[in-house]
Amino acid sequence: MLLIADLLLLSLLAVRGGKPVCQTYGTKEQSQFSKEGDINIGGIFSFHQNPVSVNPAHQVNPGAIQCEGLDPGELQYANGGHFATCACLSDKTKYPSFLRTVPSDYYQSRALAQLVKHFGWTWVGAIRTNDDYGNNGMATFTETAKRLGICLAYSVSFFRTDPPDKIQKIIDTIKTSTSKVIVAFLSHMDMDVILHDFSHHNLTGYQWVGSEGWILDPQTAAMDRHHILDGTIGLSIPKAHVSGVREFMLDVKPLNSSSNEMFTEFWEALFSCKFRQSKSSSGNQRECTGHEDLTGVQNSFTDMSFMPIFNNVYKGVYAVAHTLHSILNCNKTCNNTMQLDPYKILQLMKKIQFKTKEGEEVYFNENGDPAAKYEIINWQPTEKGIVDFVTVGLHDASLPADKQLNLQNKSLIWAQNSQQVPSSVCSEKCPAGTHKVLQKGKPVCCYDCLRCAEGEISNITDSITCVRCYPEFWSNERRDACVKKKADFLSYEEIMGALLTAASLFGMCITNVVALIFFRYRKTPIVRANNSELSFLLLFSLALCFLCALIFIGRPTEWSCMLRHTAFGITFVLCISCVLGKTIVVLMAFRATLPSSNVMTWFGPAQQRLSVLAFTLIQVIICVLWLTISPPFPFKNFKEFKDKIIFECALGSAVGFWAVLGYIGILALFCFILAFLARKLPDNFNEAKFITFSMLIFCTVWLTFIPAYISSPGKFSVAVEIFAILASSFGLLFCIFIPKCYIILLKPEKNTKKNMMGKGAPK
């Protein structure tokens, strides 16, 4: 904003009777509106609009600068830094003695950014006056907007003297942009010029956000015949009332006592008349009497609509008065003989704090700025076509950040007289379940919304990243919540678990039936042959094998994991040991039929029982070492399936597991070799052939088990192991015992000692 009256405090201070600090050079001129006894304060005031150009010859003193075009309205404000809002003036290194009663644009720019953020506009355009006011103000706005997540679609500068082609470029920029909100940090003079050009291009439908430089300017509102600015919202200096100001402004008679030419020029401009003695008097204008009545005059001098500006002047004058009052020790009278120190006056004024008679507190911060307060103004057109400047809120920078902006419960009018808050975003909000991905080469407000990957969610809008669910959870279909993963293990309720359970129970039942048959016919030759004790022990171990398969079904626990492989390993070794014992008995029995052979004395029933115990004890020792050093334990497998938790038993020690299986394999292979060697012995009922078949099935099952077990995921590996247990158990049961049961139940005539001992009798 133009520095209409910069308060250059105390550049010249003199009191009556004191010795002047500086001596004037050249002709001494009386200060305007001054008289003997005044305390003079230097200042800059733009009473006139245009200087009279002088072409100096550098030979004579050209005298004082002559001006023309007096603006009576300026006489309202000729008292201090009341309208100098440029943030640059807060720099005390450059302007150490500058104080002002109007807030710095630094606070206005921040307030505008907060206002834009409040309405959710993240994609805005910006136009600024190409001077300190606009450039500094827009720089602060841009910085604050960036911090608040607001992006500028464009930012252009403009000055009222710019050529038409530059204005056309600005118009083209606005038209091609997708932004529907324009922040205008302009002076009212620049706004008037640009509004005229915008009207020719029908740039309607845009939401304008204005600075205090033009938001309350009635001339700008009157020029907006195409309603381009309808619904504008912006900031202004708060309205204020100074009692007695109108009466003071209309009482200009004391000005005449100054005997200064300024009064003559002022009076002529005010009433459009000429004094007879005036140098500029002409015959076609009426004569001034000096007694004209101001109460009926309507012009910039008597216009009270700028009361907020006058209030700043009022506060500035009183700030100086309070300072001088304190320095001169004024009570009823003042010490007029005191020599005034400019530095002391400046330091005291910086600390001054008082209240006006209207109750407003006045003080300066460390930068010489007052408390920053702004009214939020909304342009609301009336039925008569006149714009009404409606106050809809307040911004107070002295409050905490979350309480600075306060909008009243009033209905706002937006662009094109809409009741709905307009939207201005580069990209629509990303819904929950998606995240933002920036578009290449564009601001951060321009992005694409990509769906979160599987296992990741976002439960808020405009999420920057997706959050991975905890291992026990998985993303739902909408990717906006984590749901607990389904626990996956071989259970009794599912079809595969039920079938394996049924097969296990069926095997155990068949084993029990065979055991009952053998017990019922325990005295028959076919049962007594080849050590019936081993047969019953084998049936017992097979029953345990069928039952241990059930331990693998159900949710793994600490005890079930330890029992699974150890119980399976011990029962199978017991089973294979019995089969191995029976195979050895067959071989020994054949050798015992040879002359002078006493081999059976070396492998009698006692030795058979001890061999089974010894083979089984080795497996028990292996299992005990496994459970002691690194036992199996329940484990949650999150890697196998993305949406399931595989509950399984970790082996603990892989060496222990493969040692158990390896020992079973060694015994089975040894048994298979012995049975294979005894398969062609000449008995009518050669059990070695059936043992060979059973061991062949056993070895085949467990050889195919290894690759199937390793490659099967999750519960299917458990199912493969149960299948191997059941298949090998059924192989042993059917190959060894079913043929005997067939003879016992269906061919009892063959169940004789003579038939059992016969050597290849004809059928």
Can you offer a commentary on this structure?
With 763 residues, the protein is an alpha/beta fold. 40% of the residues lie in helices and 13% in strands. It contains 19 helices and 21 strands. The chain has helices at 105-118, 132-147, 164-176, 188-200, 218-223, 245-250, 253-256, 261-271, 307-327, 342-350, 495-520, 525-528, 532-548, 558-592, 605-629, 654-677, 687-711, 715-746, 753-757, and strands at 48-51, 67-70, 123-129, 151-158, 181-185, 207-210, 233-236, 353-355, 361-363, 373-381, 387-396, 405-407, 434-438, 447-451, 456-457, 467-468, 473-475, 482-484, 486-488, 633-637, 644-650. Strand 8 (353-355) and strand 9 form a beta hairpin.
- Judged by helices, strands and strand pairing, the structural class is alpha/beta
Largest sheet: 8 strands, mixed
Indicate the low-confidence ranges by residue numbers: 1-19, 75-81
Mean pLDDT: 81
- Given the C-alpha coordinates, what overall shape results? rod-shaped
Which strand order do you get reading across the main beta sheet?
4-3-5-6-7-10-11-12
In total, how many beta strands? 21
N→C terminal distance: 129 Å
Helical amount among residues, as a percent range?
40-55%
Number of helices: 19
* Radius of gyration, taken over Cα atoms and rounded to an integer in Å: 53 Å
Strand content: 5-15%
Give a summary of the structure in a few sentences.
With 763 residues, the protein is an alpha/beta fold. It is built from 19 helices and 21 strands.
Descriptive labels:
763 residues; alpha/beta; eight-stranded mixed sheet; three-stranded mixed sheet; 19 helices; disordered N terminus
